[in-house]
Amino acid sequence: MPRIPVHDLETAPEGSRDTLKRLEAAKGKLLNIFGGMGHSPAVLNGFAGLDGALAEHGTLTEAQRQAIRLAIAGYQDCHYCQSAYTMAGKAAGLTEEQTVELRRGSASFDDALDALVRFAVEAFDQRGQLTAATWQRTLDAGWRDDQLLEAFGNVARTFLTSGFNHLVGTEVDVPPAPGLPQ
Asked: Which residues neighbour 64 within 8 Å (Cβ) at sequence distance 6 or greater?
């Protein structure tokens, strides 16, 4: 049971309504996470701003962004995010098997993506205090330093969603990811 109201377009605070409309149009329905975030226009609009900037100005593909998000959601054991990012990852071209592996923090099917995912998990785990060896290993795998910063932006975005879901108890309203409770 959520700790806060999950708003719809009619009950949301005025400062959240336009963003909720955009998110509903983009996702095909108003997801519980966004209805919950909508309780605080600052949180909802902050999330939407970061998400929009990563999509609009980033160089990572949608599949690469979802790979990072799956790895962090798996590390944080957020069932909501693992389920939502599995759905989004599959829509971006990842197979179900790949999404399961990514939730475990690796991508053996793609060496460069594996380096980026491992970078992201270590960046999260070490609160940004990466070793020089990890940074260099990720560059050596073909990633640029601006892409590493962008990957970290996706780590921060996923911490926001996973942490939010844990904090307020968001009820899962998307198909559960493989291996998670129904």
From this structure: 113, 116
Along the 182 residues of the chain, how does pLDDT read in single tens digits? 889 999 999 999 999 999 999 999 999 999 999 999 999 999 999 999 999 999 999 999 999 999 999 999 999 999 999 999 999 999 999 999 999 999 999 999 999 999 999 999 999 999 999 999 999 999 999 999 999 999 999 999 999 999 999 999 999 999 999 998 76
Contact status, residue 89 vs residue 102, Cβ threshold 8 Å: yes
Q: How far apart are CA 53 and CA 73, in angstroms?
A: 20
Q: How far apart are the C-alpha atoms of 144 and 6, rounded to whole Å?
A: 40
Cβ pair 30, 170 in contact under 8 A? no
> Is 108:114 a contact under the CB 8 Å cutoff?
yes
Token pair 């109201």 in the structure block, residue: 5
**Which residue reads 């377009």 in tokens?**
9
Which pTM does this prediction carry?
A: 0.96
> Is the backbone of residue 149 left (phi > 0), alpha (psi -120 to 50) or beta?
alpha
Nearest to 87 by CA among 76, 75, 77, 73: 73
